[in-house]
Design brief:
195 residues, mainly alpha, 7 helices, globular
Amino acid sequence: MTDPTPSSPAQLAPPPGLRELFFGMLQVALSAFGGGLSAWSQRIVVEQRRWMSNEQFLTGLTVARLFPGPNQINMAVYIGAEFHGLVGAVAALSGMLLVPFSLLMAFGLIYFQIHALPAVDRLLAGVVAAAAGMALSMGFKILDQYWKDAVALLLAAAVFLALSFFHARLVPVVLISGPLAMIWYWPRSAVRPRP
């Protein structure tokens, strides 16, 4: 059983060092075999290591998804930069890429030798199902954060319907929904009454 999600800065752990960032991102990368990186990242960064609150993590995930490139690579850069700037981004990115890339190359060589076996195909189908379950799990955890926010739920439902039922293309959906969400949630200072 995992710790409850930190909700206040007092519950957060001390900021990680470069070594911790490297091994934390390595743990994310090696935990998410077959997919589900965002779910594992949330579990490790927020629930286990308590480096960020769920809200901080969701902010980073949103930023990571808006920029081009793989979401989790962007997220590793965001997490590392949040704590140690450019050096932290490099440490987190190295943890995310060095060992997994080496393992991927080794597994790739093995896969091309045995990929015709039916058992291998079934094994990979099971891994994909597990990754889908992890993604759904993270979705429900995020839902807790926004359950009472009608606009967030409306935006999420609109994007889900556009992509799932109307088969809209991802880029136009992001280009429309992203700016709308940013405009709606942009921090506004309280309007002061005129003297």
